[in-house]
Design goal:
2 copies of one chain form a homodimer. By secondary structure, chain A is an all-alpha fold. In chain A, helix 5 runs antiparallel to helix 10. The first copy, chain A, binds a DNA duplex (30 and 30 nucleotides) through helix 3.
Chain lengths: 206, 206
DNA sequence: CCCTCCGTTGACCGATTCGGTTAATTTAGT
DNA sequence: ACTAAATTAACCGAATCGGTCAACGGAGGG
């Protein structure tokens, strides 16, 4: 990889990165042409090869970049600071939306990369996966205090259900392209409000 | 299209159809090679072209076939017979699982086809879409009786939320390939039980 | 004004893959 | 053994692939 890439104006770097995210997220590794990425970034194929030695290097660079961005935002929005469960979800979602505004196809790329079947790529992806996302999550769930929730509620199921609904909503939005993050944030707020109204213990007016 | 295709043993027809569903669901129309479909079906490319005039014809045949299968199952499982909402969802899901057992990639193909960007294909898909799925759904929602649900519940939001969770779950399963419909049916049963426990009016032991 | 970088590109390369055709081979019925 | 249908290998021209390379053009420095 040519380090001069990082000297490029930030906007141009991002254009190239986003072009990579998009093309690689829409096709398998093998069927993602460098020419298409270059075109989407508004540069020539030659220049793309000037900055990245070959396709595989660009792919792995994008993978690492995705992990870096994710952890950056997770930190910025203090998503691991334990508080109220719903507030944590809200913070997590807000971080996700901010990412989607800057890198709309990053999450789609990450999923695709994780399940990529090309032997060479798949090996490298899974090797580096452990490096980034060790355990971390899902311990929030264990430490969940039943107090504050509707009595008798299956907390584990509630959490999985909320997770699936978020993914389902996000996926539906991603499918139809041109994502309106403002609208999505409103929708998700409504969802959260709904969850709170259903799952949280009703405060009896004493 | 060569009508002799329908004289083929049902198992072979299905093999070809499923090969098409899979390849077209994993790549865009343009990047789905006929050779790959033929190989996945265990026949030669020449034979595929013997039954289908060209790629476009095969694609549209699969689209129509998908619609046909869907309506068939929706009928068989009497999914539009109005009863309890949760039971309707259960029936709908059961139909979906039965389809996934016989045609694992059909739903993924349908979604991909609907959002296909290739100009020629996209036009034809949307032309025929109205023919199949006019209005039908979503009127169940309007006719929903608040009686029987927890008081004050936002029914519309509840329905959307359940829909998204189902989609999110299904999507997660689809991603990792090799889908275990038995497990999925169990998971979905648990989900339904959870929803009932949360949304349905609690019967006070009189 | 010329020289030298260096970001950038168009043109090109050999290899591969594409949709589709054709002629021949295999199979099955009689 | 004859025939008709099922099935395929071999092939076609065109397009596309990852990657290279020589050259262009503008900015800076003397």
């Amino acid at each position: 990889m040519n380090n001069r890439f990082f000297d490029l104006p930030a906007e141009k770097q991002q254009r190239i990165i986003n072009a990579g995210f998009r093309v690689f997220s829409e096709n398998s590794y093998k069927k993602s042409p460098m020419s298409e990425i270059a075109a989407a970034a508004g540069i020539s194929k030659s220049l793309l090869f000037h900055y990245f030695l070959n396709k595989k290097e660009l792919y792995m660079f994008l993978w690492d970049k995705g992990a870096e961005i994710t952890m950056q935002y997770l930190n910025d929005y203090s998503c691991y600071e334990p508080t109220d469960l719903f507030e944590m979800m809200e913070r997590g979602m807000r971080a996700k939306f901010r990412i989607m505004e800057e890198y709309p196809y990053m999450s789609a790329f990450a999923v695709k990369a994780f399940y990529e079947k090309d032997a060479e790529i798949s090996a490298e992806i899974h090797k580096s996966y452990r490096k980034y996302f060790d355990i971390k999550a899902s311990n929030t769930l264990a430490a969940l205090d039943p107090e504050g929730f509707v009595p008798g509620l299956d907390l584990k199921m509630m959490y999985r259900e909320m997770y699936w609904a978020s993914e389902g909503y996000l996926w539906e939005m991603l499918q139809r392209g041109e994502l309106d993050t403002a609208q999505m944030e409103k929708d998700f707020s409504a969802l959260l409000k709904f969850w709170r109204s259903v799952y949280q213990k009703k405060e009896r007016s004493v």
